[in-house]
Design goal:
single chain, 96 residues, globular
């Protein structure tokens, strides 16, 4: 199985509204058939040294399923949304 973790720090402008929209859209992505398990999460308020505001954590059966997700229309649309509100991004895909 493959776990895909993608974290974002967001621009300060409209940050709370953008976090809420990120989470809403992220939960929708969790429902895609290619994703076995998924979470859209935000950093705990008050956490010290928090570098990222939000993250997507998705599990896939295989790297092929992850690659299918990367080009699906829902993910492409999500990427366009996030591209307009993010400052930084970090991602890791690993086998577990």
């Amino acid at each position: 199985m493959i776990r895909h973790i993608c974290m974002f720090s967001l621009k300060e402008e409209n940050k709370e509204a953008n976090i809420a929209e990120f989470l809403r859209r992220g939960v929708e992505l969790c429902g895609l058939p290619v994703i076995l398990e998924g979470q859209a999460v935000r950093c705990t308020e008050g956490a010290q040294n928090a570098n990222f505001d939000v993250a997507l954590i998705f599990d896939f059966d295989s790297i092929e399923d992850l690659n299918t997700y990367q080009v699906c229309p829902e993910h492409v649309a999500f990427g366009k949304f996030v591209g307009g509100i993010r400052e930084n991004r970090a991602c890791i895909d690993y086998t577990f």
